[in-house]
């Protein structure tokens, strides 16, 4: 299927690895002019080269912390007025909410709620003027089914979800869609760190804990970043113009509810 976005410009945040990289790869394969950003220069430069080589086209990069005003300015300078924006940032740490002080909450809200909102604010009006725009926010399946040890993520990402629900219904008539992608358990560095913590806490080998976690997913495995990226690319396509303000679960069937 031709997604109809060849030649469009995309800014993909936190894309040197994991789900962000999967999204950047999928968009680059569709002929999109992709700019990726991440904190570590060596990592983001290497990722851009590898994604570009696989797609047969250059991928631009910028090393910055997207959760800061300076980082957002650098990203937007590298990719002025994108047609496609993929918001992504590392999730806050797990733990007992009693242990989180105000500073921890502010960091989580800055990274996982206010940063996407600031990037949307900086880009959405130009998308409206062009009568085309696609904004995809990578949030978490915990928005749909909160996880008790992810209090910071539950709160910050749910705040973003509420904001998007209102704005998406105002801009879709102008050809601009805003949707959220809710990943379940994907085989990423973050997942492995989480399972290493579980293994340490239980005294079990990490591979055993990983195998048990994968088996518990109805699909019988963890997700792959490339298939997550494919869903993102479709939401960014011309064929998804009637999908707006939605929270799309990509979790191997893990969410047990009907709605």
What does this molecule look like?
The chain has a 7-stranded parallel sheet, sandwiched between helices. The mean pLDDT is 95. It starts with 8 loop residues before the first strand and ends in a 9-residue tail after the last strand. The chain has 8 helices and 7 strands. By secondary structure, it is an alpha/beta fold. Strand 2, helix 2 and strand 3 form a beta-alpha-beta unit. Helix 6 crosses helix 7. The longest helix has 29 residues.
Count of DSSP-assigned helices: 8
- Strand order across the biggest sheet? 3-2-1-4-5-6-7
Beta-strand percentage? 5-15%
Helix content: 40-55%
Low-confidence stretches: none
**SSE order, as H and E?**
EHEHEHEHEHEHHHE
Output mean pLDDT. Answer: 95
Q: How many runs of DSSP E, i.e. beta strands?
A: 7
Largest sheet, strands/sense/barrel: 7 strands, parallel
Which SSEs are present, and which pair or pack?
Elements: E1 9-12, H1 18-29, E2 33-38, H2 41-55, E3 60-63, H3 69-78, E4 84-87, H4 102-130, E5 133-138, H5 151-171, E6 176-183, H6 189-202, H7 206-216, H8 225-235, E7 247-250
Parallel strand pairs: 1-2, 1-4, 2-3, 4-5, 5-6, 6-7
Short description:
The protein has about 260 residues and is of the alpha/beta class. It contains eight helices and seven strands; from the N terminus they run βαβαβαβαβαβαααβ. The longest helix is centred in the middle third of the chain and has 29 residues, at about 100-130.
């Amino acid at each position: 299927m031709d997604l109809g976005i060849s030649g469009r410009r995309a800014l993909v945040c936190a894309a040197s690895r994991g789900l962000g990289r999967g999204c950047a790869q999928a968009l680059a394969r569709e002929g999109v002019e992709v700019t990726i950003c991440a904190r570590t220069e060596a990592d983001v430069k290497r990722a851009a080269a590898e994604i570009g080589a696989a797609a047969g086209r250059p991928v631009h990069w910028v090393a910055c912390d997207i959760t800061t005003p300076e980082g957002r300015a650098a990203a937007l300078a590298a990719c002025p007025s994108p047609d496609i924006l993929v918001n992504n940032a590392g999730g806050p740490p797990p733990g007992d909410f009693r242990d989180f002080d105000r500073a921890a909450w502010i960091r989580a809200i800055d990274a996982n709620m206010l940063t996407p909102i600031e990037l949307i604010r900086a880009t959405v009006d130009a998308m409206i003027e062009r009568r085309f725009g696609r904004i995809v926010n990578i949030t978490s399946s915990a928005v749909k089914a909160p996880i008790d040890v992810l209090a910071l993520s539950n709160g910050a990402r749910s705040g973003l979800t509420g904001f998007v629900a209102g704005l998406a219904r105002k801009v879709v008539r102008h050809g601009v869609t805003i949707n959220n992608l809710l990943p379940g358990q994907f085989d990423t560095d973050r997942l492995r760190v989480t399972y290493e913590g579980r293994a340490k806490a239980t005294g079990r080998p990490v591979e055993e804990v990983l195998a048990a976690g994968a088996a518990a997913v109805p699909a019988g495995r963890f997700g792959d970043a490339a298939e997550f990226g494919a869903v993102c690319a479709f939401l960014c396509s011309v064929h998804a113009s009637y999908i707006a303000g939605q929270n799309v679960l990509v979790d191997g069937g893990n969410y047990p509810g009907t709605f």
